[in-house]
Fold this protein.
Amino acid sequence: MTAPAAPPDADEHPEAVAGAGRAAPAGAGAWVVLPTYNEAENLEPIATAILATLPDATLLVVDDGSPDGTGEIADRLAAADARVRVLHRAAKAGLGRAYLAGFRAALEGGAARVIQMDADWSHDPGALPSLLAPLLDGTADLVIGSRYTQGGRVVDWGFLRRFVSRGGSLFARLVLSLPANDLTGGFKAWQAATLGAVEFAGVHAGGYVFQVEMTYRAQRGGARIREVPITFRDRRVGQSKMSRRIVGEALVVVLQLRWDELRGRGPRQAA
């Protein structure tokens, strides 16, 4: 079993402590939605780290029928800790669909704020307070943990992976006229009202472009979007789920969103 990550050093990870003093009681009213598929080695330590950072939060594990027993581990954690809940889905149906199912459950459960993050340690649980701070301050409706804003960085990636990620964000930003620098990342915090205003039925992205589409829909709905810097690390255990198909889907969906908007078929925009 992989050991939980040590608390981030304040000098190395300023994003992990920025705004932390404003997050007390830590995580009250927040739900952390954590999709999993074959994350048996990661789930228990990441869950422990999340709840250590936000002890008053609710952790919702959304497992897509993992054959490696991740769902059973989630059930065991939930039986031992009332802060942990589990949503089982029959089979893998895409990251975006897992998030939407988790979002619905969190909103129905009364969440005031909803955080989304990966279970593979690429998103540092120590950065959660800084992600929540702008929501608690009332200065943002959607906060993006950004690799590409000042102070953000990526480690453990090769040139090609960096190029695809950053290029994808730039492409989406230009085509959709979005303000954020990091549009493909999945470390985000939402005001529940903002998330609930997104028409889930209209979201057609099943893969990583889901992140772009949700930010696009929130921005067109008038959401105030803010980026806070994070340090992104490659997954500790297991294989990356990135593929050529996912990259191709991203290009197609971004162009489709813009085309629909030009034809007057895009999401309703705020007045």
